Each structure stands twice: as structure tokens, then as C-alpha cells.
Known about the structure:
Blueprint: H1 2-28, H2 34-37, H3 64-86, H4 96-105, H5 109-126, H6 137-147, H7 150-163, E1 168-175, E2 178-185, E3 196-202, H8 209-212, H9 216-226, H10 230-237
Antiparallel strand pairs: 1-2, 1-3
Amino acid sequence: MHTQSARLNRRRFLQTTAAAAALVGAAMAGWTPLVMAQGQQKKEAFPMQPLPYPENALEPTISARTVSFHYGKHTKKYYDTTNEMVAGGKYAGMPLEEVVRAAHQEKNKKLFNNAAQAWNHTFYWNQFKPGGREFSGRAAEAIKASFGGYEEFRDKFVKEAEGQFGSGYAWLVDNKGKLEIVTTPNAVNPLVKQQKPVLTVDVWEHAYYLDYQNKRGEHVRTVLDKLINWQVVAQNMA
């Protein structure tokens, strides 16, 4: 029995050694064996950017639970669908911003909705800073010149956001050198209106309902007061 066991162990050793040698030889020859490629992911035309902060960093203004759903499910779905639709096609080599404009012009509704939402959400997430940032610098000067001061700007922005019927966004835009507050329905963004986005607050219900229920205005006001990185807003004005 001991002899039989020793033979089995020797056989397993030889098989393992042979397999290892084959892998090493294949690697030296420049071939990647299938077992090493299984974990590789297919390259996407538009990889979703990671959040620039932890999911709980925006609390209590936006809860980690809301971020988990809003970023982890909604934003991801828009990116996944956009990537599926452009794979191997004429849009694959374009920047996402150009895909948004082209899909809108060509009335490709499904692609536009998903590509625009992917763009909108990335713009949205990147403008936040945990704890906000002091309202100062170039953005503050431009907003004071256009609206009279921060409070006047904020109150007008909140009013416009509350007045957006159904899902959509409230935006601060540069419209041919003039700062304006506009709203857009659903996935529509200022890019397709030849306006430059400067700041936005998402007023789709999934952006605020878990934390604020039907109090959209309170959500928008708190986001402006507590989370906006005004340095990023100034960069968006450039």
C-alpha cells in the first residue's frame, strides 16, 4: 500500500512539474495561456471613472446609501449600455462628449439617453468636495457679477430646480460668455444647446429621494451650500 501511495504521489508530482514547465515555456515564447487570460476584462470605449472620494464622504448631505445606488447602479448602467451600443461601431473612437452630440443630432434616442447620462453623471460627481469649499475666487466673482451674490444665485437656482417638471437637471451654464441658470429634462444637457456646463444638480428622484423624499428644494439648497467645490466650478468656466 505504501508503494502504491508513493507511486501516486510521484505521478502527481511529475504531472504538476510538466504543467508548470509548459506554462513557463509558453510564457517565454510570448503566448498567454487561457488560464491566465480568464480574469482579463474586455476593453471598454468609455470606462466609468471611479469616484474621487469614498461613498460615505458626502454625508450627511448625500448619504452613502444614495451614492451606492446612484453611482454604483444608475451611473454604471448608463456606462454599460453606452459601451455595449458603441462597441465596434462608428462611435467607438469618439470622445464621449462627441458621441452625445452626434447621437442627439442623428436622433439616436437610446444611445443619446445613455451616453448623455454617462457624461452628466461624471460631470456631477466630479464637482463635489466633502465639506465643500469656500465660495471665493474666480467662480465667486463671476457669480456675484451675474446674480448679485451667492444667496441670490442659490435662491434662483433652487427655484429653477424645483420648477423642473419630472426628471432632469438644473445647470449653471456659460451661454456665449454670459452665466445663466437653465434646466433640462431627462438626459438632455447644455452640450446639445451649444452652452457650456459649469455646475449641475441632478433632480432625478434617485439622486435625492432616499435622503429628502419629496423635498427637492432642500436637497438642491444643501448640495450648493455644503458640497460644491468652487475651484472645480472655476475650472469649468475656463
